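Field notebook, page 692. I keep forgetting to write these up properly, so this time I am using the form the group agreed on. The chain and the ligand, alpha-D-galactopyranose, are recorded exactly as supplied. Prediction of the bound pose follows.
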Amino acid sequence: MTVHHLRAAGSSLVLDARGVAASIVHWGSDLGDLDGTALAALADAVVPAVPPSSLDVPLRFALLPGLAEGWSGRPALAGHRQGRPAGGLRLVGADLQDFLTVRSATPEGDLEVLTELDLSSQGVLRVRHRLTNTGPGDFHLAGLDVRLPIPQDAAELLDFTGLWCHERQPQRTPLGHGMWSRESRHGRPGHDDAFLLMAGEPGFGFRHGRVWAVHLAWSGDKSVHAERSALGYGALGAGELLAPGEITLAEGGSYETPWLVAVFSDTGIDGLSDRLHPWIRSRNALRLPRPVVLNTWEAVYFNQDHAVLNELVDAAAAAGVERFVLDDGWFTGRRDDRRALGDWYVDAETWPDGLHPLVQRVRGAGMEFGLWVEPEMISPESALAAAHPEWILGGPDAPTWRWQRVLDLGDPGAYAYIRDRLADLLTEYDIAFLKWDHNRDLLVPGSSHRQTTAVYRLLAELKTAFPHVEIESCASGGARIDLGILELVDRFWTSDTNDPLDRQAIQRWTSVLVPPEYLGGHLGDATAHVTGRTSALGFRLATALFGSAGIEWNLTVANDAEKQLIADWIGEYKRLRPLLHTGAVVRADPADPALRLHGVVAQDRSQAVYALVATGTPRSALPPPVRFPGLDPVRSYTVRPIGAPYKAVQDAPPPWLTDGGITLPGRVLAEVGLTVPLLAPEQAALFTVDAV
Ligand code: GLA
């Protein structure tokens, strides 16, 4: 038994495996190279005193905290065997190989927990528990959470809430005594998903402050929480939210928690992305370059008229689009959103020759073809529901949502039907991409675990059988964006709103966790369909540039000047995407919230691209110079304007702009900054920065 130390990328985790229960004595900044003696001294140094009116022995924050050690906060493990609650878990042993494993068991030996703690070279910590029922009879699991300690100076929380078309709205709150638990019972993370729960030094920003953050890599019900006890202990944690009876372990049976993904940064929120993005990129070998997409949804909705679609194919190809995605409306009887989900056969009336003519036209124009599906759903008005009412989750009387019910993928018959339909489509047509939608909550108690594991299995099976097919996770926009499903998909539909003003905020916050190349962002109509707000083309283009870019607009109605700007933008995107999709995402802490600067800096800091965005009217007529974060302080860089024209409220632009650029050391750009154009509200200016 010893004290173990995991170290990587500026962070350390120290686990004391010497006592009755394992405890994490440090998770935070890198402590340097410590030998066994120093580690033991460190663990001894933080053994607490015994306060009045408490247990007679020091209470340490255990890896699996529970009542047995005197922890009266939320227990890591809850459950019972024949009405007898699970006992305390004692340390059996710990072993550090490539990652750290800790074995714990009840004194009676009827439950065992294997905990894995893996700190990646990029500084991302993953922790999960595997519980095994080693006793007689069934064990009924109520919950098993992963908890990590946070210090007292992590006193401010930042997480997210949201609505349809309004995902990833940040909310800050002080962490007092008690529990802040963000619970999803949607059967998917939901538009209001907590997403990434951060606890930091009060006032932490994008570029400053120490921050601890957790995310649960899981697409079903969950609780993500922060807790501080009156003793002073604080923790971040998460686990699947289980309904009573949802998980029963037979003798010998096991349950594995989803991975808790945890990151520490001493340089604010950007420091979290600096660790998360390279780690995600190293695991999920996304195919680059990310193609420019055209999606038909807001261009034609359900009106899949051949002549219009053919024209759209030609316009897309002419503009430089690389992937044409046929959205909802192509399958039997699907004329609106009230019917036909489940009947995954090409509609013979709209498509008498199947999708072949369209696919051929798309392929002939040099583009890939993609198709929308919503495999986990069933319309009451469908041939499938008539034939198999028993496949409806919650039964045929379950409430409808967007006029649809959920297909019970835990039913082997329903699972096989859907898998075979999708496999047949992928075999018959040259399909490179599926937009995989999920447009409602499950709302059936106890169904989340089974349904979520089934959809993971289905995605994995299709990925294995059709390795060339990419899949996009969409759930009425961004209601299923998490690192569980990201193991199996290649793109997220970030939000159903293509309004650039909404998108600025949604993309800024979603990309704290998910690298931009996974986040679909489309150029929409001038007047956004969802909000009715009209935005300048330059603002829409500058917004959609930072992500997996595409178009969701009937290009055929664009005038020649617009078409030219769009083609130029696609050219710029193609030139910049090697940088945009591999670099470090940076966001300046705004001096004025109406003026935002964000960008992407190459990993070797040789180049960068930044967007200055006016989300409203700045507070002062002459905003302070804008500082450019993330550059190498000792190298010199030339800053140049690029992109479509924007509206500025100035009689004369800053002189350096009229000269076409300026060269300054990175330190000056970061510390002093640069006078920028006086943007009118809802305008954006783009700059490239190249080392000289
Ligand atoms: C959902 C998606 C949209 C679109 C429609 C089609 O709302 O989020 O992008 O695909 O379904 O019905």
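OBSERVATIONS:
- The first strand starts at residue 3 and ends at 8.
- The chain has three domains: 63-283, 293-583, 588-691.
FOLLOW-UP: compare against the apo run.
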